[in-house]
Amino acid sequence: QVQLVESGGGLVQPGGSLRLSCAASGNIFSIYHMSWYRQAPGKQRELVARITSGGSTNYVDSVKGRFTISRDNAKRMVYLQMNSLKPEDTAVYYCNQGGFGVDYWGQGTQVTVSS
Fold this sequence. Notes:
mainly beta, globular, 7-stranded mixed beta sheet, single chain
């Protein structure tokens, strides 16, 4: 059974940084693309960043230049380094595994950017 477990969320001041981690278990991690989504109160869940099995990345415009997604296939981990955080980045962040007909989600981790 596939499990995705996020960690690293918390409260940070505007301009600060956080690093989210997602640990995956249960399948052949390296063949799937991995994504981070977020959902703010009253808003739809949105794709923040994606990294393919080959290492290609893409980002939503609002985080380009501030966030970096990466993966370590040997450790079955995916990361989201978030710098220059803004109050509008406040949301629950979810790890997602997709491709080849799968669509798995973690439980989410709260990120709050506030002074």
